[in-house]
Structures are given as structure tokens and as C-alpha cells.
Amino acid sequence: MWVITIFLKENIKIFEFDTEKEAKEIFKNMKGTKILSEIVYFNDPCFVKVRL
Q: pTM surpassing 0.85?
């Protein structure tokens, strides 16, 4: 998951995106101080070690 956090005047807004591409397209057009973050959940199947 990708998250954009925007600080504009006295407000903070957070937007969530499923893909990096989608987030970056929106990010470049947003005004204000902004942060683009990737959120990684370590309980996702791709991070679970399989024991045999």
C-alpha cells in the first residue's frame, strides 16, 4: 500500500493507493508539503517464512 500525507496550512490529509504508479501520478500534481510512503505489513504472505 502507498500513502500520501499532505500538510496544507493547518490541515493534514492522508490518501491511500494500491499501486506505486497510481500514487506517484497523483503525488506530482498535489500542492503543499507532501510525503509519499510505502506501507509494508510483515504478516503479508510474501514475508512469511515457510518451514518444511
A: no
